[in-house]
# Entry
Amino acid sequence: MYDVIIIGAGFAGYTAAIYSVRYRLTTLVISKEPGGVIVNSREVENYPGFRRISGFELMKKFEEHAKSLGAELVVDEVVGIIKQAGSFKIETRQGETYEAKSVILALGTERRKLDIPGAKEYEGKGVHYCATCDAAFYKDKVVAVIGGGNSAAHSALLLSRFARKVYIIYRREKLRCEPLLYDKINATANIEIIYKTNLTEVKGSKFLEKVRLDNEYKGRKELELDGVFVEIGSIPNSSLAKELGVELTDKHEIVVDEHCRTNIKGVYAAGDVTNTVLRQGIVAAAQGAIAAASAYAFITGRHPSQAW
# Structure
């Protein structure tokens, strides 16, 4: 019987583990893919304390820190969480079962992938899912952002600071972003919007070189590009939470309060899977610390505000 089992091993999960073991809670972290989506980023330049570091290296540091304090890590996929009298039973894909007094859900999100020929083959070689992580690699290059919401607008504006030319390719007639963002895009000379158009194929040799469009742009259905940044939304990995009866928003995010508590006693959530206002590693890490404090308070019979 563990005091706490943390499902997920990204910014939120590892930080929750670090804080949990410092609270002297027996702690187990279970993750199908330790490190989370950030490990796919070649460089991270916005995490405090590291001017430049790869996502993989950063998460290895998180992992090593948690393990050095006594947290256990199991690489496996959780397929079920069963609420019992006074505990939770965790079932995994490999047929193992674990039991804990409390659970922290640090499940993260999964970006909607570009489902066209070549997209998977060129992922990390011209196809990207994080402008914040990879924009700096495209200084004086030509790139495209796929999507029309706030995330796409933010990515295009960020990329415009590095790239020579930024296209926004969107399937509808008008961007869905906030008016202020739309105005900023229109005021940025090196951003151009291509409406009512979808990508149908990604092409190249070693790296991405061009994309094929379903509508003509300036008389052609191919557009030469150095990079494509996909911003067509993300999906919270909340199916386990839903099966457990955890309250979700209409966007399938886990609803948490300021103490990272869910509607189920003893179950906490942290990171991008929650209804947070900013999906960044530093926010996920902060929520992981809060969730661990709340789990400690729950186990010791304190109010979360009295965890320290």
Remarks:
- The CA atoms of residues 10 and 92 lie 18 Å apart.
- The chain has a mean pLDDT of 94.
